[in-house]
C-alpha cells in the first residue's frame, strides 16, 4: 500500500482498518504486535501505538492485555 502524502500514523491507521474491513484480521483475532507492525509497515513503535489508540477510540480494536490488541467483535465496517 502506498503512503502518499498522509502522516505516518494515518497510514498505519488506514492499513490496519483496511485489513479489518477486508477480513484479513477477523473479529476477536489478535493483531500483530506493535513491534511486528512497526517493522512491516516501516513505522516507529510510537507511530503504531498512536494509530492503535485511535483504532481503539473508533471501535475497531480492543486491548485485552498490556501489549496485545484484538479486532473488536463488531468493528464499525
Describe the protein's architecture and organization.
The chain is mostly helical and 77 residues long. The chain has one domain (8-71): Orthogonal Bundle (Arc Repressor Mutant, subunit A). The protein has helices at 8-22, 34-41, 45-57, and strands at residues 61-63, 69-71. A hairpin with a 5-residue loop joins strand 1 (61-63) and strand 2. Helix 1 (8-22) crosses helix 3 (45-57) and helix 2 (34-41) packs across helix 3. The relative contact order is 0.21. The model has no long low-confidence stretch (mean pLDDT 92).
Secondary structure elements and their pairing?
Layout: H1 8-22, H2 34-41, H3 45-57, E1 61-63, E2 69-71
Antiparallel strand pairs: 1-2
Q: Which structural class fits the helix and strand makeup?
A: mainly alpha
The tally of strands reads 2
Which architecture name does CATH use? Orthogonal Bundle
Sequence of secondary-structure elements: HHHEE
Strand content of the residues, in percent? Answer: 5-15%
- CATH class category label: Mainly Alpha
CATH topology grouping: Arc Repressor Mutant, subunit A
Task: Count helical runs.
Answer: 3
- Average pLDDT across residues? 92
Low-confidence stretches: none
Amino acid at each position: 500500500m502506498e503512503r502518499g502524502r498522509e502522516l505516518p500514523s494515518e497510514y498505519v491507521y488506514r492499513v490496519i482498518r483496511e485489513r479489518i474491513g477486508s477480513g484479513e484480521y477477523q473479529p476477536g483475532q489478535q493483531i500483530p504486535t506493535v513491534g511486528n507492525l512497526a517493522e512491516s509497515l516501516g513505522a516507529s513503535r510510537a507511530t503504531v501505538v498512536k494509530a492503535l489508540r485511535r483504532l481503539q477510540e473508533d471501535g475497531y480494536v480492543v486491548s485485552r492485555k498490556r501489549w496485545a490488541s484484538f479486532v473488536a467483535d463488531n468493528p464499525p465496517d
